[in-house]
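Retro notes (design track)

What went well: tokenization of the new backbones is finally stable.
What didn't: we kept losing track of which sequence belonged to which structure.
Fix going forward: every design gets posted as structure first, then sequence, in one message. First example under the new rule, 609 residues:
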């Protein structure tokens, strides 16, 4: 994930910006840069490809004297990791650093070029620089220029701005990617997280969704999404003691749920060539993607459900048959595996004992072993032939959230790569699927806005003894994931069934007032799921429907609650639906007062079978 820092200081800030960037190195990056407003009133930047040591050498050779500046570590999304594409992006009047993806950058780029502001790099960030420059040229103040441009940008991102002629002003804006503001003595700071700012201050204010802050040495004004000045609480951060800090969240789990737009965006940046709407696998594979005639996926728990979604995708889009199994069953079942075939194990921690054993079983059978892991130096990663990383940062909450959606995003990209190689996904279909993946960070940010409503809905669940989850197609694994999240966090008994299976037994469970969570977003199966929903409603169930606007319009009157998620391509719908089932379980557990981050009897890394 890209990292952002900023300082309105009292002496030269370039070296301090560099130090703060070092504390963001753990997020991963491939180039870096800083810009300051120099005493002669000009904006000057230094940038370097590769590690921060290169930037440091550049600064040593050509020091900067400015007492106000911004800095950035870049993880390339649009455009190669070159110095020319590194941030800050600058015109004579503004310098910009940016984290996240501006989805509509291509349309904005054309429009800017037509009005005399042509782009020179392949980045989406330059579009922001040019748009703000145009407003400044038209006579806007920095605050007005940023306020005018922000609503034109689609996607999930964080931004920081530095302006020529304003030696006491930084502007920061958040839409989907977190930003922390640090309060010093006669100085103020901006950081992607409190950890970056820990050497400077422990007093942190987190911007909320849609916020824009005008930051001066002696304080700041925050404007909400409607442009109204608002107060945001100041926290004392523990980040200096502990690398990962909860920020202004009550639990790690809620922080990790909120991090999903950024986590997914960072993961996708690894797999996609967004500028060309293509999947671009960086991994060297020891076999031809068109070769295998089946794929075996093994995993445990939530990672298994990610594998189950992937089965639907691989079979439908890539026409590749998939066997998917929980690792603890697979390893002892003695399944015949074809020598030279391909296995994929999925694990956040990379240490799960059963998944590791499944990997070793496949290897012993002579298979090529691929692993999707979040912890790059884990045992599973070390023992695999190919590592497909999820890049969602450390996951602390025991219940997996951002790792799940990042796994799904990465699996979605793999499906496209296999489908293309096997001749089942043509360029136009690939562009459509990649566009659906690229739109995810924005859609996830949108889905998170249902938080307040879901908290209220969760009251219904917190009074239940049993809850049923149903769905069809890829909504079925999401029903399973919803039920797992609810039981592990709230200790309420929950089960999930394919909606079409109800009549074969489970419908007998339904009695008056039993909550049934129905996952049904727009696809070719939605109407069938909705009719299954009416069948349980007619038997007294209290329906909580997770759907998009189109589904909500079809829902009818026998639905107790509707949780509306954004309408997306059905391909990526499970990733958006994940947010709703996670928040529902999270808030139910909070209402019930259970230990959300460390539920009873559970461990984050299950290294015993
Ligand atoms: C549930 C959960 C677990 C893990 C499972 C596998 O919320 O987190 O079900 O998904 O223990 O863990 P990893 O992915 O580390 O192999």
């Amino acid at each position: 994930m890209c990292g952002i820092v900023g300082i309105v200081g009292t002496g030269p800030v370039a070296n301090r910006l560099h130090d703060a960037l070092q504390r963001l190195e753990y997020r991963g990056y491939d180039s870096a840069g800083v810009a300051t407003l120099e005493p002669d009133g000009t904006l000057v930047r230094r940038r370097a490809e590769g590690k921060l040591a290169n930037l440091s050498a550049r600064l040593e050779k050509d020091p900067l004297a400015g007492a106000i500046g911004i800095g950035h570590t870049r993880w390339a999304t649009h455009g190669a990791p070159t110095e020319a594409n590194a941030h800050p992006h600058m015109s004579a009047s503004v310098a910009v650093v940016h984290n996240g993806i501006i989805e509509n950058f291509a349309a904005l780029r054309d429009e800017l070029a037509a009005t005399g502001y042509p782009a020179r790099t392949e980045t989406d960030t330059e579009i922001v620089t040019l748009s703000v420059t145009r407003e400044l040229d038209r006579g806007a103040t920095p605050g007005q220029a940023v306020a005018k441009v922000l609503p034109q940008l689609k996607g999930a991102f964080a931004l920081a701005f530095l302006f020529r002629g304003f030696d006491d002003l930084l502007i920061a804006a958040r839409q989907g990617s977190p930003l922390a503001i640090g309060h010093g003595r006669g100085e103020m700071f901006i950081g992607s997280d409190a950890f970056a700012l820990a050497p400077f201050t422990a007093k942190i204010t987190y911007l909320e969704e849609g916020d824009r802050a005008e930051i001066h040495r002696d304080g700041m004004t925050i404007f909400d999404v409607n442009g109204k000045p608002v107060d945001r609480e100041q926290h004392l951060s523990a980040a200096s003691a502990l690398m990962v800090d909860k920020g202004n969240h009550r639990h790690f789990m809620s922080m990790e749920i909120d991090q999903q737009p950024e986590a997914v965006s960072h993961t996708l940046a690894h797999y996609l060539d967004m500028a060309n709407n293509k999947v671009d696998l960086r991994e060297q594979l020891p076999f031809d993607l068109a070769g295998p005639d089946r794929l075996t996926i093994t995993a445990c728990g939530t990672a298994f459900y990610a594998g189950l979604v992937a089965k639907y995708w691989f079979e439908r889009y890539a026409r590749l048959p998939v066997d998917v199994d929980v690792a603890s069953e697979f390893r002892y079942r003695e399944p015949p595996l074809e020598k030279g075939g391909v296995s994929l194990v999925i694990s956040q921690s990379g240490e799960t004992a059963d998944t590791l054993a499944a990997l070793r079983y496949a290897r012993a059978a002579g298979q090529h072993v691929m692993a999707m892991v979040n912890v790059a130096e884990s045992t599973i990663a070390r023992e695999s032939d190919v590592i497909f990383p999820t890049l969602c940062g450390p996951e602390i909450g025991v219940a997996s959230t951002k790792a799940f959606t990042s796994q799904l995003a990465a699996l979605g990209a793999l499906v496209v790569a296999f489908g293309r190689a096997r001749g089942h996904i043509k360029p136009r279909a690939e562009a459509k699927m990649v566009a659906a993946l690229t739109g995810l960070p924005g859609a996830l940010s949108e889905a998170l806005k249902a938080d307040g409503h879901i908290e209220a809905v969760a009251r219904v669940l917190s009074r239940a003894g049993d809850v049923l989850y149903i769905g069809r197609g890829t909504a079925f694994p999401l029903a399973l994931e919803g039920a797992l999240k609810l039981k592990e966090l709230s200790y309420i008994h929950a089960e999930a069934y394919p909606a079409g299976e109800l009549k074969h037994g489970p419908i007998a469970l339904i009695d008056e007032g039993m909550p049934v969570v129905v996952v049904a977003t727009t696809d070719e199966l939605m109407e069938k799921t909705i009719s299954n929903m009416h069948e349980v409603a007619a038997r007294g169930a209290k329906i909580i429907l997770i759907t998009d606007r189109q589904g909500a319009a079809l829902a009818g009157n026998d639905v107790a609650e509707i949780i509306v998620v954004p309408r997306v391509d059905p391909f990526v719908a499970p990733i958006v639906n994940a947010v709703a089932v996670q928040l529902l379980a999270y808030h139910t557990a909070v209402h019930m007062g259970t230990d959300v981050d460390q539920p009873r009897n559970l461990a984050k890394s299950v290294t015993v079978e």
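Added context from the reviewer: Residues 288 and 421 are 8 Å apart (CA to CA).
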